[in-house]
Amino acid sequence: MIIVIGSSNIDLTVTVDCFPTPGETIPGHHFSQSFGGKGANQAVAAVRAGGQVVFMSKVGTDANGTLIEQYLSAQGFRQLAMLHHEDSSTGVAMILVDRAGDNQIVVVPGSNGRFTPDDIRQHATLMTGARVLLVQLEIPMDTVQEALMLAKRLGLITILNPAPARSLPPDLLRLVDILTPNESEARALTNLADAANAAQSLSAQGVGAVVVTCGERGAVMSRGKAVTIVPAFLVDAVDSTGAGDAFNGALASAVADGMELDSAIDIANAAGGLATTVRGVQESMPTKVAIASLLRHGTRKTPLA
Length: 305
Fold this sequence. Notes:
This protein is of the alpha/beta class. The protein is 33% helix and 23% strand. Helix 6 packs across helix 7 (195-203) and helix 9 packs across helix 10 (288-297). It is globular and about 50 Å long.
């Protein structure tokens, strides 16, 4: 079983030809409102990848919070623990996607910023029977740390997706079994441009394993000084939004199933690749069947140099 603790948002997405420069107004082509938040995205991804998932999040008492709760209640979670904050709006993300499938995102945390360590302590029994904890950084850092501390005491495997990137204290890093930054997040955490060097640097700070996701170029894993490169799959990408969340959810599902980390990353690469072939975020999270098909029949790209 997997417990995912993190954010829930309403996503407002606009497609454009190219991103605007400061002060520039440009036309958009398509607008959509959908469900997002890294916590919810990764929880849905883990369910679709075949995991038994408990999801804990905090929304406002507004219409957006009601929409999110109704939607998530139909996604097949083993248990859904939605907390409420009466004085905050539900989180919102504003997303631009260009014709190449790249994205720019602004997140207004709202109720996600009111998710407290006491919330974690009051709902500690949710971790009972779980094998993996998956958390991100769209909720307060002290809440993330409380969740990691509790999970370690209970013997769970801990996965932290450090997004959005921010400074991580050494005592928090030592609570993490698997850290999953993308290239820009790894660079922000280490000031090192090379993914392998950044992974090794983070690993040396006490993380069990570091997996740096490199988009269409695959992933780099470091355990101490050892570095492993896991290639990505060849896909026809149309929208990269949510690919990292698909990767993390599928990774957590595979780890919870007892897979070795190299094999779990291969599965996660397949999930992340498939997510780029569908527009939207939670709509793009692939099923276990689709992931298995790409693993069997897909073409892996040339590994990172």
